Structures are given as structure tokens and as C-alpha cells.
Amino acid sequence: MSKSDGPKLVTALFSFKGKNNDELCFKKGDIITITQTDDGGWWEGTLNEKTGWFPSNYVKEYKAPGTSLQSFSFSDSDSGSTSAKMSPEKSSPDSPIHQTLNRDIVLKDIVDSERANVAELQGLVNNFLQPLEAANVIKKEEYKQLIGNFHEVLETHQRLLANLDSALSQGPEARVGNIFLTLAPKLKSIHTTYCNCHPQAVCILDRYRDELNDFMERSGAISPGILVLTTGLSKPFRRLDKYSAMLQELERHTEKNNPDRGDTQRSVSVYRDIADRCAAIRKQRELALQILTSGIKGWEGEELNVLGDIIHVGPVILVSGVERRDRYFVLFPTTLLVLSISARMSSFVYEGKLPLTGINVVALEQSEEIKNAFEISGPMIESITVVCPSREERQHWIELLSQEQIAIRASNLSRSPTSISHSSSQNSKLQAAGAEHSSSPGNKAPWSLASFRPAPPIYALKTFGKPDAVDSCRSTKTCNERQFEDDAIILRVIEGYCLSANARFTVHSAGGCRKLLKP
User: Fold this and answer.
1) What does the pLDDT look like over 109-132, one tens digit per residue?
2) Which CATH number is 301-519's, of 3.40.50.2000, 2.30.29.30, 3.10.580.10, 3.40.50.1110?
3) Would you list the DSSP string of 357-368?
């Protein structure tokens, strides 16, 4: 469809309700402006400022009754009312020529700002980050934590700039929205990784504030030098926040029949979601670092870092009847920590912990009283109803808890063959020790982990100076077999206790899991 032909219009033969966010919804009789036609049976069009895909067999070409389509394109003021009926969409006060010019201006602004962004990132690398690595102001490992995947961020934005420069030379046919949409998965991946590492970089900046400030100023940064470094390292996610607004402005100046309109419109929401996701990740990591570094009131036992890395942390509400209490869940590889906020909102307070091996997690159905909730239950705890801020957050918690439980089971299974072999070996040793003990009571075997088991030879001790020695010897084999079976059962109980000792829900008071709900 050439531009000289004007916009192609179709009318809906049937109503259509799109199931995906890139599909168009319309009713029978609606008139749609076509943006793209595809041989696969789906077309893209615009209706009421919304652009999306729909089945091509749901529409037919629109022609006004008693006249051709071309007559409407050149109708005078007398036919204005008729042409208004031709399309329900409000016509822009700007002509298509002005709209195209405005789009070119917006596109040039996007390209220029991206060029400035890349230049700033490249300047930080060349002038400060590379010299900092060679200067040994901080340790190599800390330098890696400081910059994260900054070089990968730079390379991806250089690629984006090259694609935008190429599109700029194409004029009105430039598919800018498509460029942003195509690069969105890569940008999301590298920015998610960068934002996940950035809070750790902030800790390093704070720890070596004076040393880094002196280095930056010696390297030519304006005073205070530490501010230049801090600003430069935060540039990637500050830039990410701007893409949605820029693309929205580009969409506003894109004609309704422009083939790139749909991709541009979808890019707006995609980049808004990416920016929101990265902001949430940064907040998560900052909260996790605060928990690890500031300490927890009431926490007893080993250091928190012994539990491993924090996988996820977030606010929840624990419900018991009509009672609701605000809490924070902190997920470690094998433990779920439950915290509250102090009365002065200045620190975290320990409320309890739930070893993942001893709990079951089940999503609860939505109800008027409780929404976005799941239930935690187990053989040694009372059921806990957990309410999350959103349905997505609930699903995220359930998936994470299930994944970690599966990982724990897989780890235990990988050790099972060794454990079985070890148990068999110990059983053989016990039999040998029993024979030794019955023949040489003076010999005492050295203590080992197998000492937890009841010693099978106890029945054979009756042979020493006892009148029923003959009967005992006759029944030794039967007794030993029965005892070995009993020993195996006892051993499994002991091993199960040792493995699941952490499966008990530990809290400060004897109130059990009710302490999680205390005011």
C-alpha cells in the first residue's frame, strides 16, 4: 500500500475480542484504518487510537454507500459530515505532512539523545573505569562488583544506536518501534543483571569513598569526584526510565496507517514494564543488603550469611482469623526467615524461621475476604495464610519456594547412594564387632557415628557365665536378624531426625508459629 493511495479502511463483519495485548478489539460495523497486511491471515489496524492485530477474514474493504473511496479523499466542506461518518476516529488538527515532519523531529531527538548516552558511558569507561582497574585502588574482586556488566550495557546501547542511525536514513519508512521491540529482550536481560548488582556497587562506593574521590579528581573529574563516578554508574537505569516516554511521543506523531505504529505502541508498554521491573529489582537488592548489614533484633545463632544468599525478600501479611500482621519474608536457599519492622521503623525484628524441608505451599482461591494469598502448612506448624501485594507477587513466591524445595530434594537424592552404601558398610562393621565382642569381651571398638545404633551383640552377652547359654546360642541367629531389622528402623528414625531437625518451626517463645502473628 503506497502512501499516495491514502489510508486503507475496512469495516468489521463480526465482533472480535483480542486475547493478547497486541490484538485489536472491535465490534461489528466498526471502521478500522489498516497499518499492515500479512499473508498469514492477520492484519494490523488502528481503531480509537489503539493499534493491534486481528483476523483478516473478520473485515472487508470499506466503501461509502453510493460513492467511491477516492471521492471521500478529495471531498469539500459540503461532504464533511459524510467523511466524518467514514471513520469514527477523530482527525488530527495537523495534516499528514505536518505529522510526518513532527515524527522526523521526534525521531532525530531520540537518536541524538541515545548518541549522547553512549558517549557518556564510553567516556566513563575510557577516562575512569579502565584507569581505576589498573590503579589498584580497590581489590580486583571489588572492582568487578563495582562495574558489574557495565561493558555489556555499553555494547548493547552501541548496537541500539547503530540501528537507530540506520533507521534515520530511511525517512518516513523507518521502523523505529520495531527496532526497540526487537532489542527489548536483550536490553531487559542486561539491565536486569546490572540493577541486580548495583546495590553492591553502592556499598563499595561508600566503603572506599575517600580513596575513590581522590582517584576521580586526580583523573580529571570535577569535585566532588565521587559524585561523578556515582552518577555515571547510575546512568544505565536512569536512561532506561526515559524510553517509554520517548516512544509515547513518537507514537503520538505517527500516522494511524503507518506500518510502524503498532510496534511503537507496544514498545511503550514493554519499556515501561522493563523500567518497573529493574526498579523493583534494585529495591529488592537494597533491602536484602540492609537486612544482611544492619542486623536483626532478636536474632540468635550463626551469622545470617551462613544461611546463603538472599534469593527474594518482600512484604506480606500473615492472617489468622480476623487478625492481620505485616511481616517481611526473606528467602534463603534452605530457610524462609520471617521478620517484622520495629516500632520506630528503624530496624528489622526476628519473628521466626521456616526450614523449607518441613513446609507445603498451596495457592488459595480468591475470595472477598482474602485475595492474592497462599497457605504454608506442615507437620510441625500450624497453617499460615500469607497475603501478597499482588497476584504476580503471590505466584512469584510460590514458584521460588517450590523451586528451592525441589533443589533441596535433588541435593538429598544425589547424596542418597552414598548414604545407603555407608549404612550397609556400618551394618557389616557392627556384625563384625559383635562377633569380636562375643569372643573377646576385653576388646573395645573405637567410637564412630555407628555408635548411635543399638549394638546387636547384646543378646550374645548371655553366653558369659549364664545357665541358659545353650538356648541363647541356639536363638542367636534369629534374635540377631530381628535385632538388625529393629536397628534399621531406629537408624532411619535417628537419621530422619538429624536431617529434619531444622524442619521444626523455631521461634523465641513457646507460642510456636503464633509468634509470627504477634503485634
Assistant:
1) 999 999 999 999 999 999 999 999
2) 2.30.29.30
3) GG-EEEEPPP-S
